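Lecture notes, part 5. Sequence design as translation. It can be helpful to think of inverse folding as translation between two languages: the language of shapes and the language of residues. The source text, in structure tokens, appears below.
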């Protein structure tokens, strides 16, 4: 069985000529014909070269891997029973799913409080994030969860004011922070500012703390989609030159006269902007955490990608030693921007394996009495059943689930529906629910009552879309938890899951489904 798709993908706008007859290991058509125009990835690479490394069309998509892993979260099922209730009185009139408490508090002082146990863990300078930020920020604030401003936002902002290599004013970062803070309710949720190598050099987090009133910052060790720095495409020559002068790796060199001439005559239409890879040492990590605390950061997070186990151990140990407030572990396969497509598919530790190792390493530290920060699992989560499984897989250490692509999708759909309402061009699929915001969005009545008519009318439909998606996830998660008789997140355990195959059981340490409750079964039957 082939686990990967090679040489043809909707992500790269390529396809095989003979789709039913391809060579699995190369992805090539069985008969590669002289005269073919080159629809496959090899063929397209013959005339567009390095452009075909990345998913397309740039700027209007989010992307995730097509690779099918031998074990994934679908290889586990949620267990339930008929006895008792934890976190509520075992009374059928009280133990109803709307009473499941999804609120989570974490941080060194439990000062961070989320109404729902998930977070958007870092979307930065890509167009897909910038163009949907209004919906993402306001929707997240209304829902009372977390949103992370990802890497390179300051560096990519043409209106940023940078003096002596340090940022002193911004437009984009300020807008992103304030869109959340201006809509935050009763202190729930958080806006987090992330930093990579370039952001650290620019002093982005210090600026966010001192000038924008940001309490939470996050250090970045990559993501599940790639093991290199972030990249975007730039279609404007002057912007490419600005980024080059700010110290980014820009390809081809936008200051080279020959490159400028080639761009102006249309030989290529976009530059690539790349970030550098970080060089982590324990000493430099400790020093950076101390710098951020002195700068006034109240809470410090770390996000690590799908790196090898040694890097995972470093992340957990350094986070423990420095008493960080949240550690996000992002499994392979995801992506919100323009990660290299083959890298997205073929690099990194898959989620189940990476999350299992995270649990094992965290437990080793906890068993020795060492600090274990709150942990967030990320890597392909989209619906309530997966959220439940992730929380259970990492219990009791995992407090949050990270999702980026699905919240972006919800915000984009909400935004699009708003446009079609304004243009009186609603598709039939949507129009069957009505022709106004109040009729189409099922949460509109609740939001209108909570915010008042004037504030509700100001809401972008992207924000309503995200809020409504979150409402669905919350009700679905409450139903699953009630069925497992767990009425608060603190009562979830790994025993709430069963592995459906011996391989899944062996990898994860979750009990094989045929062995679940074996001792209890014997007690009942042999009584």
């Amino acid at each position: 069985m082939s686990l990967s798709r090679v040489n043809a993908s909707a992500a790269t706008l390529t396809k095989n000529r003979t789709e039913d007859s391809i060579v699995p290991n190369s992805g090539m058509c069985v008969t590669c014909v002289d005269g073919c125009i080159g629809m496959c990835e090899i063929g397209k690479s013959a005339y567009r070269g390095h452009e075909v490394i990345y998913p397309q069309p740039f700027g209007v998509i989010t992307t995730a891997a097509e690779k099918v892993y031998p074990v994934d979260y679908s290889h586990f099922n949620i267990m339930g029973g008929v006895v008792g209730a934890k976190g509520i009185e075992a009374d059928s009139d009280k133990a109803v799913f709307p009473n499941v408490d999804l609120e989570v508090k974490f941080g060194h002082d439990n000062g961070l409080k989320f109404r729902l146990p998930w977070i958007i863990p870092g979307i930065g300078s890509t167009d897909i994030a910038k163009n949907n930020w209004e919906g993402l920020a306001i929707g997240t604030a209304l829902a009372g969860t977390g949103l992370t401003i990802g890497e390179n936002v300051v560096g990519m902002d043409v209106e940023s004011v940078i003096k002596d290599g340090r940022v002193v004013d911004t437009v984009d970062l300020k807008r992103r922070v304030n869109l959340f803070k201006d809509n935050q309710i009763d202190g729930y949720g958080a806006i987090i500012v992330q930093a990579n190598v370039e952001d650290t050099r620019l002093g982005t987090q210090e600026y966010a703390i001192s000038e924008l009133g940001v309490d939470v910052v996050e250090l970045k060790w990559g993501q599940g989609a790639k093991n290199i720095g972030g990249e975007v495409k730039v279609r404007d020559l002057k912007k490419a030159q600005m980024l080059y002068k700010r110290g980014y790796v820009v390809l081809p060199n936008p200051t080279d006269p020959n490159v400028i001439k080639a761009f102006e005559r249309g030989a290529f239409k976009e530059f690539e902007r790349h970030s550098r890879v970080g060089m982590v040492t324990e000493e430099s990590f400790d020093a950076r955490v101390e710098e951020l605390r002195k700068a006034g950061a109240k809470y410090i997070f770390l996000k690590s990608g799908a790196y090898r186990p040694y890097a995972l151990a470093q992340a957990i140990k350094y986070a423990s030693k420095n008493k960080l407030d949240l550690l996000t572990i992002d499994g392979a396969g995801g992506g919100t921007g323009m990660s290299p497509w083959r890298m997205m598919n073929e690099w990194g530790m898959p989620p189940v394996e990476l999350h299992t190792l995270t649990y094992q390493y965290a437990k080793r530290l906890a068993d020795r009495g060492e600090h274990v920060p709150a942990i967030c699992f990320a890597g392909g989560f989209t619906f309530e059943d997966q959220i439940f499984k992730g929380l259970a897989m990492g219990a009791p250490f995992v407090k949050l689930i990270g999702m980026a692509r699905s919240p972006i999708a919800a915000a984009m759909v909400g935004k699009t529906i708003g446009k079609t309402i304004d243009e009186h061009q609603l598709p039939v699929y949507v129009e069957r629910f009505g022709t106004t915001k109040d009729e189409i969005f099922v949460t509109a009545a609740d939001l209108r009552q909570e915010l008042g008519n004037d504030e509700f009318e100001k809401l972008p439909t992207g924000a309503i879309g995200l809020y409504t998606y979150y409402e669905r996830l919350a009700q679905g998660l409450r139903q699953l938890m009630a069925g497992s008789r767990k009425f608060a997140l603190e009562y979830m355990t790994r025993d709430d899951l069963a592995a459906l195959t011996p391989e899944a059981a062996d990898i994860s340490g979750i009990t094989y489904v045929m062995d679940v409750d074996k001792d209890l079964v014997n007690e009942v039957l042999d009584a």
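The translated text above is only one of many valid answers, since several sequences can fold into similar shapes. The longest strand covers residues 118-123.
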